[in-house]
Amino acid sequence: MINRIIDQFSRFFVGVIFIFSGHIKLNDPIGTEIKLEEYFEVFATDFGSFFQVFIPYALELGLFLIVLEIVLGVAVLINYRMNLTTKVLLGLLLFFTFLTFYSAYFNKVTDCGCFGDAIKLTPWHSFYKDIILMAFVFHLFWYRKRYDPLLRTMEGHAVIIAVTATSLFLGIYAVRHLPFIDFRAYKIGNTIPEQMKPEEQPIIEFIFEKDGEKVRSQKFLTEQEGYAYKDSHVLNEEKATAKITDYAVTSVDGEDVTQQTFTGAKLLIIMYDIHHSSAENIDEIRTLAKSLSSEKKDVAHAGFLCGAGPLVRVAARWLEVRDVGDAGRPLLAGERAEGPADEHAPAERLQFLDAGVADGRGRRGESQRGERRQQHYEAMSREFQRVQKRGG
């Protein structure tokens, strides 16, 4: 009786955890891509440049791992080919456990992204979670012959194929659009200036040594009192750190104009890399930008944010709309456009700011084409003009 309870609990516990974790990451595969890039960069530094080969494929690898995680969770719940399923489960969890331990012990990647942006875990918490999960996965592996399939062979195949196809479709959709449930600091409706402020002031704990013993205090104790300073750390680091710490905008002259982007209505044309931006539909972008820039300057302003980084998270340049070169990208000061743009680079996005509030449903990834793309620009223009009238 006890063995049966442990068997069933292990199956449900592992299956639910894998499905939940996979769906959280499936909501925003870009987040998993960013985490994998961080790991590959760390491994390239610590183990060899070979890992740099994987960086351009981080999104594809991340989506594969996410779908695999969900499929394995479903497979465990229906006892689908448990001999194969438990072996893959054990291998995948060993891989995750190594990553979390390496992050925790060497303090390399401070957020593993196990549950995306929904649930933040420290590296050590992630490692302990994997160790607990490992016990149940090992039980499933060791007693895998006890688990009889709940569905007939063809029905089991159908369920796994359907779950794989649905997860892959949802993942691709989330990459090409915004997350279904947005947990990010830059999500639509968030006021960026507010997200740049910490919830609390940092509470610092100092560590001293006196008479051979460690003494902890939130007050700095002096050497005159016999205390020797050893170390310090922030007790409320999570709440003392602003959710947005990487939003900064400078002019072509190097002037900080971040606060100017929070006044009035702004339409930002964000480019990951101006040298690899698609020139397709640049005429529509140019027309939209110039038409908005010709309106009242105190209310309407269109500009380009150019640089490298995910979405708005970029230390970028703020350019007043002057001209767009033949290569399909804005010209920097003293620069001439040379050479064609990369037609295949998904490097641009529209973002609308209404007094610092993210209000534009810009798309990520490969841009929409043809009539749908034009309708998107027209909708952004109408929204911008609506807020302009409201503000004016």
Write a structural description.
It is built from 10 helices and 9 strands. By secondary structure, it is an alpha+beta fold. A 6-stranded mixed β-sheet has the order 4-7-6-5-8-9, with helices on one face. It has a 3-stranded antiparallel β-sheet with strand order 2-1-3, with no helix packed on it. The protein starts with a helix and ends with a helix. It has helices spanning 2-26, 29-46, 58-77, 82-106, 123-142, 153-176, 192-195, 237-240, 282-293, 370-391, and strands at 204-210, 213-217, 228-234, 248-250, 265-271, 300-306, 315-320, 348-354, 357-358. Helix 1 (2-26) packs antiparallel against helix 3 (58-77), helix 3 (58-77) crosses helix 4 (82-106) and helix 4 packs antiparallel against helix 5 (123-142).
